Amino acid sequence: MAIEIIQAGVLTTLQDLGRSGYRAQGVVLSGAMDGFAHRVANWLVGNDENQPTLEITMGGLEIVFHEPALIALGGFGGRAFLNQSPMDCWKSTAVQPRDRLKVMYAGYGCRSYLAVAGGWQISEVLGSYSTYASAGWGGFQGRALRKGDQIAFTPKPSPQASWSIASSALPEYSSNPQVRVIEGPEWDWFTEESQRHWLEENHSVLPQSNRMGYRLKAALERSHTGELLSTAVSPGTLQVLPDGNLVLLMNDAPATGGYPRIAQVIEADLCICAQLTTGNEVRFVRISAAEAEEIYVSSHQHLQLLKQSIFQRLYAN
């Protein structure tokens, strides 16, 4: 087998861009929490963006390679060491048999993504490689990786060139980020004063947070006393709990929910949210739907230009 897990870390799973097309049947999206890091790591080794990567949460991963490979690591908060020497993130790197890679936690951020040229060799479930551990399906045997696991990757001629990503091309990762939102369907269910305070204050990430969603400290007060029927939600939906705190739904969230939706994080900022961890603070910035659409178009153009630049450099010869 191509690699062996020496230490699996806090939580390491295989993820792609998610299990789309099944939300109507109640199937969660899953997939890489930080879609930007996942995509770019794949591109740096010449892969299609939907090839699976190892999503490494809070570091602690150590693997040994049994085959030569071209790898790349992206994300925020991971410190990589190849044979005990520092390895650059956001850059393609060649490895040889018996090489050891460690991904340690840097004390900030949350998730890193390891791609290998050719892609990790696992089976699809409902058209996706993503792990949904709560249901025990997808990824590697439907679970997080463990010590002793062995995973193959598909042999593929690797590009001869390598390329690194400039920091200016990365999202504005931060332990205390500003995240842009648009009003949710139940925005008017809350008093104007609590809406104003909510936008003016920072909100701490509480310990009850995982891939399903983040709990955020808030003090929202309702002006509408009615109950909400279970209705559609998606990654980025901000729901208000009965105690006034928030849940920011993420990739493993269900397709429907029954709490009022005060706002929706724009797609371009979900990768920033993916890097939050307990104790971080986030501030929300309200923008219009028209502004959100402009940012959506601009961010996708940026991704396509980045992809073209990487591939032109990788295959220049």
Question: How does this structure look, described?
Answer:
It is a single chain. By secondary structure, the chain is of the alpha+beta class. The chain has four helices and 20 strands. Strands 13-20-12-19-16-17-14 form a seven-stranded mixed beta sheet. A six-stranded antiparallel beta sheet has the order 7-6-9-4-1-11, with no helix packed on it. A hairpin with a 2-residue loop joins strand 6 and strand 7. The radius of gyration is 20 Å and the shape is globular. The two termini are 31 Å apart.
SS-based class: alpha+beta
CA-atom Rg in angstroms: 20 Å
> Biggest sheet: strands side by side, in what order?
13-20-12-19-16-17-14
Q: How would you describe the oligomerization state of the chains in this entry?
A: single chain
Compressed to H and E, one letter per element, the order equals EEHEEEEEEEEEEHEEEEEEEHEH
Number of E-state strands: 20
The unreliable regions are none
- Count helical runs: 4
Index terms:
alpha+beta; seven-stranded mixed beta sheet; 4 helices; 15% helix; 28% strand
What's the short version?
The protein has 317 residues and is an alpha+beta fold. The chain is 15% helix and 28% strand.
Write the layout of secondary structure elements.
Elements (H helix, E strand, L loop, with lengths): L2 E6 L2 E5 L19 H10 L8 E5 L3 E5 L3 E7 L2 E5 L2 E3 L4 E4 L4 E6 L5 E6 L33 E2 L26 E6 L8 H9 L2 E2 L8 E4 L14 E2 L4 E4 L5 E4 L6 E2 L3 E5 L4 H4 L7 E6 L2 H26 L3
Parallel strand pairs: 12-20
Antiparallel strand pairs: 1-4, 1-11, 2-3, 3-10, 4-9, 5-8, 5-10, 6-7, 6-9, 12-19, 13-20, 14-17, 15-18, 16-17, 16-19
Helix pairs in contact: 1-4
